[in-house]
Each structure stands twice: as C-alpha cells, then as structure tokens.
Write a structure and sequence with these properties.
homodimer; alpha+beta; Nuclear Transport Factor 2, Chain: A; six-stranded mixed beta sheet; NTF2-like_dom_sf (chains A, B)
Chain lengths: 127, 127
C-alpha cells in the first residue's frame, strides 16, 4: 500500500472506529505522541491516552459519517457529517500521518452557521 | 500531469490568482457552470460570471495564503490563512475538478472562534 492509500485508509478507519465506539481499533490508529488541536477554541490535547479519553468522554449520542476523504502522501483531510439527536454539523479535519502509517497530528474545525452579510444578494441563492 | 497533480496545481493557482487579483487567470481555472457553496450561510452561487463578480466585489483588503493543499484524483481540499487588516481567519475549502482540469464545485467553510464547553479542562491545554 502506498503512502496515499495508507493515509486514506487511516482516516476512514478513524471515523468508522469512532462511530463504532471501537476504542481499541481507534487507539491503534494513533501515534503515542499524537497532537490534537481545535483552533476555534484554541484547545490542544497531547498524547494518545488523553485523546482517547477525550473521545470516550465526549458527551451526547453523536454519530459521524464521512462526506469526503482526500489523501495526498502523508497528509489527508476529512469532511465529516456529525449528528447529535436532530442536530447536524459538518466538520473539516486535517491529518498528518507518520512514516509508520499512524495519525500523528489532527486539526479539527467545527464551522457554525451564521447570517450572511448584506451586499451580495444579487449574486447568491439561499437554501 | 496526472489527475492528482492537475487538481493540486488548480487549487494552488486558485488561491494565488485570487491573492494577486489576477481575475483573468482566476477565471481560466473555473468551469463555466462552476457551483460555489457556503454551507454556514446556506448561500450558493452558480456560474463562472457570478462567481468572478463575487470575488472581485468582495469587500476589504483581504489576503490569502495556503496553509495546506491535499489533492486526490479529481478532489482536493485547501486549508487557507485569510487576513483582513489585523484580523485573521482560517478557511477550509473543498474542490471538485472536471475531467478538463477545471474547478467545477467549491464548498467553502469559514469557522469562527467560540468559547470551549466546560468539562474537558482536565485533558486540554489552551493557547
């Protein structure tokens, strides 16, 4: 398996094992010194153990589904459909993969809805 | 140039030509029927002409810099550092590339900062 295929496979397995709450499989995808960052809240988690705990403790009956995975060498990005109850949010996640094929860095964005600024109504349609 | 290289090249050229306000080069990267979506505001722009106008009219002295591009066949994603004056925001942009190598679909997210929820202070550091 080449680097790109390995990265693509790791990201699909990351989403799928989290959705399954298969924490053994999830943990096996992560480098020991994995770093997880959420730039919107300026939060960082260091190490597999803390990051596993963060996911295991994450509140709510959340569900994840891959909208798209793009892999390129040791980099990948995932566009994820996340649902909690009737709520829905997309996530954009950036991955770095180690030379052992393990996920070593994750940068996670959770864009929230907002009202469009005025001045571009002549160009856009709303849904 | 293979599909992945073509997609990677198109996305770099998209950011660079927008930053340069080189609208002729920017427009040459786009399919005539390009569709541009901003899911956070549920806005959609159809067609090269309207999308060019949207970019040309976009207010502020904005500047774009690629943080990362991930290309994979006819899909790509760009993680962009956007600045207006002293303000800074990251963007996550998803691309589809036509079989002619033109950008045919763009989905653009602009995640905004927010306060972290409580309950995970034992796992995270702030920056």
């Amino acid at each position: 398996m080449d680097e790109t295929s390995q990265s693509r496979h790791a990201v699909h397995a990351y989403v799928d094992s989290a959705e399954q709450r298969d924490w053994e499989r999830f943990g096996a995808l992560l480098a020991e010194d994995v770093v997880y960052e959420m730039p919107q809240t300026r939060e960082r988690i260091r190490g597999k153990s803390a990051f596993l705990q963060f996911n295991m403790e994450y509140p709510g009956d959340w569900h994840l589904r891959v909208r798209r995975v793009v892999a390129d060498g040791r980099h990948a990005a995932a566009w994820i459909d996340a649902r909690v109850g009737t709520g829905h949010q997309d996530a954009c996640v950036w991955f770095e993969i180690s030379d052992q094929g393990l996920i070593s860095r994750i940068v996670d964005y959770w864009p929230e809805p907002y009202d469009p600024p005025s001045g571009r109504e002549h160009l856009v349609e709303r849904w």
